[in-house]
């Protein structure tokens, strides 16, 4: 959680210094949900997120330097600089994105869960623990979108190993959840489709972890999906371009008092699980990681012009046959982007 | 043709257990055009998945499954329904390989019948090839005979790229003897239908048959048209097309999609860009009218290009 918080704070700094561009959506305040859920996963389990995906990436194990380099638009970023803030992908960590349109990642997550079931039932490739689980993260605004409902239906119909995690931070840019939703209790939409719907305090990482464990284990055993609504809050605006003028100060201070990091620190100290000094040294280590990530990203090269067309097709024969009878991709000037397309 | 497509599905699903089918009524019903008849019994309900009516979501599901190693074939019961899946086809099929920096492949096939049928009404008579053609990262092919239907579908399934295979409602009952031995058609190549010397006629899908009908008339009148079925709508096979234009110096495109922003529009631009010096006449294009396909038979006939118009156009070009 501290890594997530420090990383996002660094992103804001870098953005205002002109090192990061475009739409950047920070996760401050919601760390308990990411940590509470993703830290329970194994490597083969999948995570699908939205544009607010930096911390999901970090929780799933993507190195901070890869994420930072991606945000700086450098060739060493996890997506070679081609994705950016809203499109974090990592095949080795099974992070299936990073999606800019809300709701469009949910079917992809459903597909990953379908593939897990398929591997088990058709290909007879079973893991020792059970089915590989997929987590789909999305917000309150997405819960009014068709793809959400269509996927709840299909996931329950086929008992797919997926957990739908709603990060209800009460706001979709400037649209209050209460103004957009006829019945604002999102967890209730689970039982409407035949799956359990659970509401949890998303500012308390231990409570999130408890609920997450049950939902993930359920999915792994093949009992199907769960809808988990996490009540959480983003301390910053929707994105770094959002002036955040609509949210009332008393709402912000209410949730600031429930800061998941402060709460966990307090719990750890009170339960004598670690000393102040130990926690301070962890924080120092994390500061170093984030600093190193920035140094790495700064020092990394920008993608060269020749990278432009490289990943358009997995099979570059898709660029077609040129007038000379040869496949375009066989012309080195083509991939360097200097030949006429 | 539906049997050829079915054979392609059976062969590929037998060869590779990661190939699966996703769509409405593909399982128990056997496909609304019988392409998957009997497949659910052969391969099971998970490999031939009957979906609820949720095109955007089940296409997206296909994308997610493809990212995790499966090779889904998503059927749009009618191509027009895939307009609902445009979000997933454009943003996810086309783009994810790129935005993930090449980490994930999307070896998905999206297929279904489109085109103007017999009085099916405007919404069931759509031609989506022109809508999808700008999506980067997508390949598009249109099959027109049982032979190339089987070959192209097999190639599309084996391709690592996302491929959209356009079939035509009126061509499913075409019969043709096809080889028993396995064969594949190249996704990027066009097909020479009738070699000639006087004018190049480029066409695809159902219009191939209108062109061939017109060709009979033209031959009787003493003309010698070269007919090429472009098959690959994206990318264009500029080699076959170019070779032909360098020979005949005149080109006519006959297509079923609408005039505005259609495949013909792109094809003409590509021809002008690449073969301007070889042309003796402006590249001409016959397309469907920019009109929602009317229900009435007379109006529907007037919407699409008819053989008589093709004959007249060739006579005009060859003056």
Automatic annotation (TrEMBL), chain A:
Top EC class for this record: oxidoreductase
An individual GO BP term: pyruvate decarboxylation to acetyl-CoA
Catalytic reaction equation(s): N(6)-[(R)-lipoyl]-L-lysyl-[protein] + pyruvate + H(+) = N(6)-[(R)-S(8)-acetyldihydrolipoyl]-L-lysyl-[protein] + CO2
GO molecular function: pyruvate dehydrogenase (acetyl-transferring) activity
Entry EC number(s): 1.2.4.1
Known cofactor(s): thiamine diphosphate
The organism's place on the tree of life at top rank: Eukaryota
Dehydrogenase E1 component domain boundaries: 1-303
Keywords for the protein's UniProt record, in alphabetical order: Oxidoreductase, Pyruvate, Thiamine pyrophosphate
Entry-linked InterPro entries: DH_E1, PDH_E1_Alpha_Subunit, Pyrv_DH_E1_asu_subgrp-y, THDP-binding
Function: The pyruvate dehydrogenase complex catalyzes the overall conversion of pyruvate to acetyl-CoA and CO(2). It contains multiple copies of three enzymatic components: pyruvate dehydrogenase (E1), dihydrolipoamide acetyltransferase (E2) and lipoamide dehydrogenase (E3).
Subunit structure: Tetramer of 2 alpha and 2 beta subunits.
PANTHER family: PYRUVATE DEHYDROGENASE E1 COMPONENT SUBUNIT ALPHA, PYRUVATE DEHYDROGENASE E1 COMPONENT, ALPHA SUBUNIT BACTERIAL AND ORGANELLAR
NCBIfam families: PDH_E1_alph_y (TIGR03182)
Name of the protein in question: Pyruvate dehydrogenase E1 component subunit alpha
Species: Brachypodium distachyon (Purple false brome)
Organism ancestry: Eukaryota, Viridiplantae, Streptophyta, Embryophyta, Tracheophyta
UniProtKB/TrEMBL annotation, chain B:
Entry EC no(s): 1.2.4.1
Cofactor dependency: thiamine diphosphate
Keywords per UniProt: Oxidoreductase, Pyruvate, Thiamine pyrophosphate
SMART domains: Transket_pyr (SM00861)
Catalyzed chemical reaction(s): N(6)-[(R)-lipoyl]-L-lysyl-[protein] + pyruvate + H(+) = N(6)-[(R)-S(8)-acetyldihydrolipoyl]-L-lysyl-[protein] + CO2
Domain Transketolase-like pyrimidine-binding intervals: 1-174
Pfam families membership: Transket_pyr (PF02779), Transketolase_C (PF02780)
Keyword Cytoplasm: no
One MF annotation (Gene Ontology) recorded for this entry: pyruvate dehydrogenase (acetyl-transferring) activity
Broad EC category: oxidoreductase
PANTHER family with a match to the protein in the record: PYRUVATE DEHYDROGENASE E1 COMPONENT BETA SUBUNIT (PTHR43257), PYRUVATE DEHYDROGENASE E1 COMPONENT SUBUNIT BETA (PTHR43257:SF2)
Role, per record: The pyruvate dehydrogenase complex catalyzes the overall conversion of pyruvate to acetyl-CoA and CO(2). It contains multiple copies of three enzymatic components: pyruvate dehydrogenase (E1), dihydrolipoamide acetyltransferase (E2) and lipoamide dehydrogenase (E3).
Listed name of the protein: pyruvate dehydrogenase (acetyl-transferring)
Organism taxonomic ancestry: Eukaryota, Viridiplantae, Streptophyta, Embryophyta, Tracheophyta
